[in-house]
Protein 1
Amino acid sequence: MATITDVAREAGVSISTVSNVINGTKFVGEELTERVNRAIETLGYQANELAASMKRRTTNNIGVILPNIGMVFFPDVLKGIEAAAKEHGYKIFYFSTDYDFEKEKEYLNLLKTSWVDGIIIDSCCPTGEVSTYQESLAANVAGRNVPVVTLETPFNHKNLGVITLNEVKFTDEAIEYLISLGHREIGILLGPENIPMYSNNIKGIEAALERHGMELLRENIMIGDYFAESGYTAVKKALDSGAQWSAIFSANDQMAIGAIKAIKEANLSIPDDVSVIGVDGIYVTTLIDPPLTTVELPRFDMGYRAGNLLMEMIQGRSRYGEHIEMEGKMIIRKSTEKAAREDWVLTGW
Amino acid sequence: MATITDVAREAGVSISTVSNVINGTKFVGEELTERVNRAIETLGYQANELAASMKRRTTNNIGVILPNIGMVFFPDVLKGIEAAAKEHGYKIFYFSTDYDFEKEKEYLNLLKTSWVDGIIIDSCCPTGEVSTYQESLAANVAGRNVPVVTLETPFNHKNLGVITLNEVKFTDEAIEYLISLGHREIGILLGPENIPMYSNNIKGIEAALERHGMELLRENIMIGDYFAESGYTAVKKALDSGAQWSAIFSANDQMAIGAIKAIKEANLSIPDDVSVIGVDGIYVTTLIDPPLTTVELPRFDMGYRAGNLLMEMIQGRSRYGEHIEMEGKMIIRKSTEKAAREDWVLTGW
DNA sequence: AATATGTAGAAAAACGTTTTATTACAGGCA
DNA sequence: TGCCTGTAATAAAACGTTTTTCTACATATT
């Protein structure tokens, strides 16, 4: 591997001149520039980025820590981040935590060493630890100067960039919508309890129910892991043990798809017997039978804006403490319909 | 940021001693070891990995270049790679090419600089350029000592590690299976023509058809982009213009799911009117109606073995030139059935 | 007793850059 | 002519490690 010294020797100049030619740092005369470029060419020289980064104290790398790339939500987020990163010439270190908080902390530690200029993390921090974890993240930013943007988790600190979804609100709206269709017995299919989204879902649900003088019953809550299979088993088990819902809210589309399978297997029809609403707006929801009513989330855009925010924090040292809340948008398809009972009341059947 | 020099000063030893304590490179007496560790503790010292990597000439990073993380195939591959990487203490630089060959070459170039010890690439190299591209990859390995493992593309070179799927064979088997069910008019839904999988599919199809005295007609081939939407539009268009197939082979499940939607919209029943077989074995294929017959591919395992192969190439400088071919396995579900016509012949309906 | 051997530790070199300080020289001005 | 100023280029320092070389001293060997 040719080094900058080899190039300098070949061109008959000093290494500083070579460096200046390469980086355009200082003016170098036409003749020498030419000689240096020729030397680079003949030697096939390529700078050692590690050495350069070490000296510059900046790597043009960012770290991205996501829970699980197998869930349809995250590849799109990653794409968004990647798009932003590419625009600014950044490379991506990718890690996944599998919702293991210990792994998450381990990776975060790794990234503090020197490999990255900034971090985007979709934390799987358990609800109970949010505030202390937030403090430790923020302290890290202060201590190491490695900016952090968090996704989904509603952190709130002047050192962090934060991008969240209006989870409480769109959950509220989804439930409100089901209620407006006359549903009163609503099954709730959520992710693990210790993930922030869980409590946001709960808040939204309770708000909507309360407005109508209803309350959230423990027995109507099912817990899955955001994968389709878990939605299937949870709903199957509930139906087997006699649950009688006219509608089901699922915290994501994948579980909703599993739920649909279980419902169909119980010889119930969707939406006539049971309405189903999901969250995410993944593409297959348009293809399944019936097409799924869902809350579309701006996945790519979340990633993209997270990337841009992070890079402004890195480069401009600005926008620290910014909190961007993004909107989910309900898309009504064929999996939700008026409740049969309400229908009966209204039409006199 | 405390440096090794600070630690040495704090502990009253030389920096070499600190380095030796940290890395266990040489024996250091109990007393000094203790002092060094205490100094590290009090200063919160964390080594600058960039400096260390530069000196060691190894980064413990690998580069992973995949076409599109949005396709269900790739997240699982990435997970496999990640699992292997984690076991060996490697970090992952992730890039996606969007099937843009220029981007691919650009990223590959980037990785030659110094950031990675090895590369795993699922190349989107156009079929026609495979051999020259293979040479350039191999030359790079020779020149830079950055081992490369390629996925899917049937490269064959002593400098490369290569992991492929038996695409010709499983395609052959899938078609053979359809023929054995009595299907004679088979629609073929493939990915872009310039991707290696395309020609492998074609080979397998032609082999199977030929054994039964049939040939592949141009008009039975539809081209998509591996996403569900493209399968939907392609099949819809074909059906609209009068295609009369009793079965459809799709090069992946996502397109097959799109195809199913189009078939249903045409008021045809699956599998009674049209059988559909896909490739991948993604989870939703078990949930859709009817559950999809498919060829299950060992996605995670491909990634995992690619990772392990690469790391042996990096560390042991062994296993160069190894070619591992992995097997797809047909899973028969409800989307394929005997052809109506053959059925008629056999049963006398 | 004199020399060889081994070893804990320090000093110094090296890795390949960028950046700062220095040099040498040309042009402008009094 | 002599001095100042500006500038193209070089020399040298610095970044933070690992690794090689060296030192000093204790122990073993003849």
Protein 2
Amino acid sequence: MPESYSFNITSPSYEYITSQEKLVEAARILLGEKVIAVDTEGTSLDYYYNKLLLVQIGTPEKAYIFDAIKIKDWAPLKKIIEDPGILKIVQNGKFDYGIIKAALGIEITNIYDTMLAEQIIVNGFKQSASLGTMAKKYLEITLDKNYESYQWDKVGVSGNFQKNHLNYAALDALVLFPIFHKQWEILNKEGLVKIARLEFSVLPVVAEMELTGSHIDVAKWRGVIVDLRLKRQETAKKIQDEIRPLFSYNQMDLFGNLSDSINLNSQQQILELFNDRLGLSLPSTGVKVLSSTNHPIAKMLLEYRASEKLISAFGENLLAKINKVTGRLHPDFQQIGAATGRFSCSSPNLQQIPRGSQFRSCFVAEKGRKLVTVDYSQQELRVLAEYSEDPTLVAAYKEKKDLHTVTAAMMYGIPEERVRKDVERQASKTINFGLMYGRGASSLAAQIGVNQEEAKKLLDLYFKKFSKVKVWLDWAAKFAVENGYSTTLGGRKRYYIPADPGDPNYLKMVSDIERKGKNTPIQGSGADMIKYALIFIRDRFRKEKIDARIIHTVHDEIVCDAEASVADDALRMQKEEMLRAGELLLKKVPIDASGVVSEVWEH
DNA sequence: AGAGGTGGTG
DNA sequence: CATGCACCACCTCT
């Protein structure tokens, strides 16, 4: 096979730079490059605990390794790293962007991220986008990614870099060039350049969002936990007292108290309780099954579970993630966290903080600041209207009508004024959302509370009135199966592993693809939209020089943190930029967004 | 350690 | 034939 890279794997060429003179000299050379690779080595994955050790800047043949302990003046390199005329290849650049900004105050511009590119290229195939995997895949070389064996934290103390450290550091930068070239070819061939540019432009926004983090009112949060624990304890005691007679052997604990008969958290023991001792025959212990029994113990158990859930998932565990340096929460945003292109969020997952509970209002602005929250109104349904071009849907949005009411009026053949909010409108809402998930009549029936036949009738009626929606959904499903991928308005692709006709699950696999094929263009286009919005908002805040920053995003919502006196301006700009992003993708349907300035996170 | 169940978000 | 999309965290059990 032809040599696809121009460096020596076992002995990569590099220059280890510890003096200002050598740095200036290297900077002069690098300023002449059009494309460079950037990488860093440090002691921690945490932006604020990390001690920056090395900054590598690579050219295709040679890596310049700057010793971050010895170098004091980074100005010549800042000029290069911030030069928009020089393309910077990085691997998982969100991390390096954050580290370099936190440690050196330098902002990487004009980024090509091999990890994001790979995630775009293999989207849907569940393949790794790690450097090791890509080096093997594109270059057929094996990288030693045993990071621990290098003991960077110890080297960080001594400042004594060994040959293996420098080799490793050099190679990490050098491999990026050939990977970039191979990926670039694929991105072009597959028509993915546009979506890659979008993702690369979002990267700095994500890194800064993580750097900024969210502020929490800890005392208030603790108060919520205390209340919940009390409630959980009361409910648990009631249940245990109630079921104790059902068990013949009751034990005392060390203090002479009657001990619990069962572990309320064990669905196995709960199932045994209901089926063997209470004479029911439940298939499972989920909320749907339990609430349909009307058994008093089932009721109490659901209450217990609600408290238990909130305590375990959002209680002290979340507070433990507050950064000791900044006193804020810095979650990990996965930029392409879902195959549809949506973000995911972890450690902690701030995208699943309960809406109704008191927890959400513990996310507060600091003194002198405000939170600005804006979300798109019915973003995904507007995307569906755009794709299907259904005249009724499009007209409803053009006339700024409530879509669920319009569909209810059409389906039930009644005037809009007579649509009842919790009857016809609710049913229409369920159908509207269900359609976007490729939902069938049986599951629909279960939720609306009618039999399957009536649900089928409702669906038929819906599709009769909104025939273009049906045409588009069927087309999207067919397209996905026949072509092996779906696309979004922003040019994203999601690939599907083809269903094997010999597989016993063949039909299920096909219908899986069909449902994903309906949902992916909708959910994915929404994701594209909010990513454009994030870029626009950051640019706008910078251009207008206002003290406002993006701190959070939840699929169709963006939260910013602004200095109090400019919060209203921030709200206006944020909304304008979100609409601009929407108008970039939706040509036939208007987009709308609404927001608030507040002390707490709400919408 | 990993699977399965349950439940939180959009 | 089986039938709601996309995630993440916690718990228990094996």
